[in-house]
Design brief:
11-stranded mixed β-sheet, alpha+beta, single chain
Length: 265
């Protein structure tokens, strides 16, 4: 199959690996993840072109819902970087969808602030460290307002996949520790040409201390040493604190991808 053109979407293929099934139609890609049917961005329709009018926008909504008829949510992406769906926002909003723009940033080795006193960095390998990562990621999702049952299901399935990727050498997970306590973590999935970051989380008690920038610098140095010629790719919601942090670390915005999602309230 010829994959999506947008860097965000093409590196999603790298992240999901064999877990997702991708079907290539003339007008769209359909992604399904049987092991995670409740994963919003693992079960979606990616259109190859924008709608040209309100009627076509309605048709894309109907087609996306047909592609995943049993899902309690509906997610559409467009494999058309740097576009504006504002002319059709009223159509999507009328159907209960929210539009979001993700910015893809690319860099080499990020700025490396250095480890603060009392903080250590290591790759996540031990069972106890994996459990600490799962607990921290789960707390972050619940703190963001995600239903605890949905969050727990997503985290359990996602980290089973992520740990497997780490153990077979296709990625890694990393943490900052204060003594034995995990205070921040994030992951990588890689190929010789691309390195994709994912799921940065900081313990609530340790936020606003610059630890995310520290972790990013340490992980980026690890990636640059292992794959010196690879592009390092990060995706963040446009206009967020995270996106600004990545830019300060030396990552450069290269494209924006628009999505529409309708999820249970």
């Amino acid at each position: 199959m010829t994959g999506p053109k947008a860097l965000e979407l093409s590196t999603d293929l790298l992240v999901m690996g064999a877990q997702s099934e991708w079907t290539d139609y003339a007008d769209r890609f359909v992604q399904r993840t049987p092991a995670q049917p409740d994963f919003w961005f693992g079960n979606r329709t990616i259109f190859k072109a924008l709608p040209t009018d309100d009627t076509e926008a309605e048709a894309q909504i109907a087609l996306a819902q047909k592609d995943n008829p049993d899902a309690p949510f509906s997610v559409l992406f467009w494999d058309v970087p740097d576009v504006d769906l504002a002319p059709f926002s009223s159509v999507f909003e009328a159907h209960g969808y929210e539009l979001e723009t993700g910015v893809t940033l690319v860099g080499g080795e990020a700025v490396r602030p250095g480890l603060p006193a009392g903080i250590s960095f290591r790759e996540i390998v031990r069972d106890a460290d994996w459990q600490a990562v799962i607990a921290l990621q789960l707390a972050g999702m619940i703190g963001d307002g995600i239903d605890p049952n949905a969050a727990q299901s997503y985290i359990a399935k996602s980290f089973a996949r992520r740990r497997t990727l780490s153990e077979v050498g296709r990625g890694g997970w990393f943490g900052l520790f204060e003594g034995d306590m995990l205070v921040a973590d994030m992951g990588l999935v890689w190929s010789p040409d691309l390195v994709r970051y994912q799921s940065v989380e900081t313990r609530e008690s340790h936020r606003r201390r610059g630890l995310c920038a520290v972790l990013l610098g340490e992980v980026s140095a690890f990636a640059a040493k292992r794959f010196p010629n690879a592009r390092q790719v990060i995706v963040a919601e446009e206009g967020t604190t995270a996106a600004r942090l990545y830019e300060r670390a030396g990552f450069v915005p290269v494209e924006r991808v628009v999505s529409a999602s309708k999820t249970p309230k």
